[in-house]
Design goal:
- The complex is a heterodimer.
- Chain A is an alpha+beta fold.
- Helix content of chain A is 42%, strand content 22%.
- Chain A is flat.
- By secondary structure, chain B is an alpha/beta fold.
- Chain B starts with a strand and ends with a helix.
- In chain B, helix 4 (87-96) links the parallel strand 4 and strand 5.
- Classes of the chains: A alpha+beta, B alpha/beta.
Chain lengths: 666, 120
């Protein structure tokens, strides 16, 4: 039979990437000089699994590379080799290369062989061998041995307890019979009298004559498992007439199995399928069990309700209401359970930072401790993937611009080692991620001067420290005097803020000059559901994301301020706020409120700019499931998606930043 | 049809072994480490065990030693999946009561052939 190994590749890649993460974390936590052998064993085991799997699934390059790493780890684990900084650094680099190789296999692209070779050379130099990765072949080549043209005399004397390892002499004799014609002579001399017979022991031994041109190694392979549990002598039969040709053919027939098998793996490799990009998610059994429970409850409620509906009378109204209440509760619980399935601990995103901080701080000559907390805080998988880059940018920023050089820190009376805290926690339906450093903080004067120089702020402007700090998120702002390798790659904080905003989140900064800075990122738990405020304009219902709403007010005519050609504004607590009439944006003609005094203004905020949305009335607050307009229709300006309301009608979800941009254009 | 217990902490290897053996008509139960395997083997009788060696919680050799000590697993074939470089593991495994081993990397055909031979 043939099994298509490609179907296991995706699982193999997933577990291997996990293994690489384990190796990376493990290597970074190793105490140089005094490493715990159990800690090394964990790293070893991950490497070992990758090696075994990659060999089996046809990724020989990965298997060979991992083999060298494994050898080094093995020596470290057994205490034959010191755990040196050099070795750990080299292994960490190897982990990166393995990850690259794995990515290449996954994308079916070609890996950078020079880098791989260079790293292999480096590892081998540490090992003190220069075998060029060929040592794997050592054992397989040992099968070249003598063969006898005529056959073999085999004396096979099992130890009494051979069967207690699950081995069966009969199986071995049967296997020999497959190699060629055999004659078997059984010795029963050792068989004791019945009363002394131990039924679990083997008392028999055999003389076997095996005819045919069979290599000694083939016979030894048959006895391979029991060679330490029996007396075995093999003597070639000489001076016998030539064996029938048929025997020869038979004996050969057993060998091509191996040959055919080894050529099969690369063949499977060439047949490249396009499903490499499909992603999957690992879900704990508990979450699935919860879900199944919930479905069970739902089924019960459903059957109860349909029973009620069969012959409904008004006396049963209370029961019906109970049932509907239950249905609502179960649906909500189920919705939560399903959402939970997509949730992963944020450690998936955090895990890259110890390495990043370690490498970058070494590179910059800074001393930095990274302290992480709340790694188990769960967040939607999509958000984990998308928050990665902004987080890296912020951490790099703290490393580069925040933490000072050790000498400067001592001069400032601080501990020479700086600290970066990475913390995640849930707060009121949001997840909050904080990046705190105890570095030099933001120099308000420097930032203000820079902003004036760049024309972002008029000269002589009087800004609070907080307003100044916010300036770093402005497009075109960068205080770095020169572009360093670490941050400042032309991607500014404005992009970070924009990327976080596109996830429905926000980023803020608090900073104290000389003491350090804290960046706070707030993200929704999921992108699939949102808390919305339903509002009505004419006959149309719209949904405003609750997070964007500051307040809803009814205004008086004396608050309104019409500027010719510039649209309407109103004055709210000494601030002039532009008004956007949803009816004119979306072309609704039958809006009930024509005059601003008749309707309501929902004050929303996007990119820290407030705006009043003019509507007829507020309806209610509810959670809505976001349906993509792009996928089902096409993009509409000012609308981020749609949802289906309880009565089956469709309501559009407003894209507040988009709406504001539109209104500016108008 | 004989029932086989397939033990491996790597889910890709476990799935491959299980899929291959099921394809050959065997009933297969999977376990993720030695301890899991030991629990499963105690609650159900298996005709053959295939186990990885390097595993967290309980390694394959300890598992074999423990299971071999059980009265109803005295003669049950127990095969280790091991790498060529781990020669000492084979000796250690044999001493613990393993029947034999299958060398990694192996392909599905090699696995099936070996298991067919052992189960007769």
């Amino acid at each position: 039979m043939s099994v298509d190994l490609e179907q296991f590749h995706q699982v193999f890649f997933e577990e291997s990437f996990e293994g690489l993460d384990i190796m990376e974390t493990g290597l970074m936590e190793l105490d140089l000089g005094a490493a715990n052998s159990e800690d090394i064993n964990t790293i070893f085991r991950a490497a070992h699994s990758i090696k075994g799997g990659s060999g089996t699934f046809g990724f020989q390059g990965i298997a060979d590379f991992t083999h060298v790493m494994e050898t080094l780890l093995d020596e470290m684990r057994d205490g034959r080799r010191q755990v040196t900084r050099e070795a750990v650094d080299s292994l960490l680099k190897s982990v990166d290369i393995l990850r690259m190789m794995m990515n290449c296999e996954q994308d079916k692209s070609d890996p950078d062989t020079d880098t791989i070779k260079r790293q292999l050379t480096e590892l081998e130099a540490i090992l003190g061998t220069s075998s060029g990765g060929g040592e794997v072949a050592a054992e397989t080549t040992s099968s070249s041995s003598t063969s006898s043209g005529a056959g073999w005399n085999i004396v096979f004397e099992p130890d009494a307890n051979m069967m207690l390892t699950g081995n069966d002499p009969l199986r071995i004799i049967r296997e020999l019979a497959e190699l060629g014609e055999i004659e078997v002579n059984t010795h029963q001399e050792k068989l004791p009298v019945f009363s002394a017979l131990e039924p679990e022991n083997c008392y028999l031994s055999w003389d076997i004559i095996l005819h045919g041109d069979i290599a000694e190694s083939v016979i030894k392979d048959v006895f391979l498992w029991v060679e330490d549990e029996c007396k075995l002598t093999l003597t070639p039969i000489v001076n016998e007439s030539a064996q029938p040709v048929a025997e020869e053919a038979k004996s050969e027939a057993t060998q091509p199995v191996k040959a055919a098998a080894t050529t099969k793996a690369p063949a499977g490799d060439n047949k490249k399928a396009a499903n490499a990009g499909s992603s999957s998610i690992r879900v704990s059994i508990d979450k699935i069990d919860d879900l199944i429970n919930m479905v069970g409850e739902l089924v019960i409620t459903q059957s109860m309700l349909s029973l009620l509906g069969e012959d409904f009378t008004m006396e049963n109204l209370e029961k019906l209401q109970d049932g509907l209440g239950q249905l609502e509760r179960h649906t909500r619980e189920m919705q939560e359970s399903v959402m939970m399935i997509r949730m992963l601990p944020i450690s998936f995103s955090f895990s890259r930072f110890p390495r990043l901080v370690r490498d970058l701080s070494t590179q910059m000559g800074k001393k930095i401790d990274l302290v992480m907390s709340g790694e188990n805080t769960e967040i939607d998988k999509t958000l984990i993937e998308k928050i990665g880059d902004p987080l890296v940018h912020l951490v790099r920023n703290s490393l580069d611009h925040g933490i000072e050089m050790p000498a400067d820190r001592i001069a400032a009376g601080k501990n020479e080692t700086g600290t970066i805290n990475l913390n995640a926690y849930h707060k009121g339906g949001n997840i909050v991620i904080e990046i705190t450093d105890d570095g030099k903080g933001i120099d308000p004067d420097a930032v203000l001067n820079k902003a004036i120089e760049k024309g972002l702020v008029p000269p002589g402007a009087n800004l609070s420290n907080q307003q100044i700090n916010e300036l770093i998120f402005q497009a075109g702002f960068s205080t770095a005097k020169e572009i360093t390798d670490v941050s400042g790659r032309g991607v500014g904080m404005d992009v970070v803020r924009k990327n976080i905003a596109s996830l429905g989140g926000a980023v803020e900064i608090q900073s104290e000059f000389g003491k350090g800075s804290t960046f706070t990122i707030r993200l929704p738990l999921t992108l699939a559901i949102l808390d919305g405020q339903t509002v009505i304009v004419g006959d149309e219902i719209y949904i405003i994301p609750l997070v964007s709403i500051v307040e809803s007010i009814q205004i008086n005519s004396d608050m309104i301020n019409k500027v010719a050609g510039k649209g309407e504004t109103f004055k709210l607590r000494d601030e002039y706020i532009p008004i956007v009439r949803l009816s004119s944006v979306f072309g609704i003609e039958n809006a009930k409120a024509k005059e601003l005094e008749d309707g309501l203004l929902v004050v929303v905020e996007a990119d820290r700019k407030p705006c009043g949305l003019f509507i007829d009335d507020l309806l209610g607050q509810q959670q809505v499931v976001i349906k993509s307009l792009e996928q089902n229709y096409h993009r509409v300006d000012g609308v981020s998606g749609a949802t289906i309301l309880g009565d089956g009608s469709v309501a559009l979800i407003l894209d507040i930043p988009g709406l504001l941009r539109m209104s500016v254009k108008h | 049809m004989p029932t086989i217990l397939a033990v491996d902490d790597s889910s890709s290897m476990r799935q491959m072994v299980s899929f291959t053996l099921k394809g050959a008509g065997y009933d297969v139960v999977e376990a993720v480490d030695g301890q899991d395997a030991l629990n499963k083997a105690k609650s159900q009788q298996f005709d053959l065990i295939v186990t990885d060696v390097n595993m967290p919680v309980m390694d394959g050799i300890t598992f074999i030693r423990n299971l071999r000590a059980e009265a109803n697993y005295k003669f049950t074939p127990m095969l280790m999946l091991t790498t060529e470089s781990a020669a000492d593991k084979k000796t250690e495994g044999k001493a613990a009561g393993a029947t034999g081993w299958i060398v990694k990397p192996f392909n599905p055909d090699q696995l099936i052939n070996t298991i067919k031979k052992v189960l007769g």
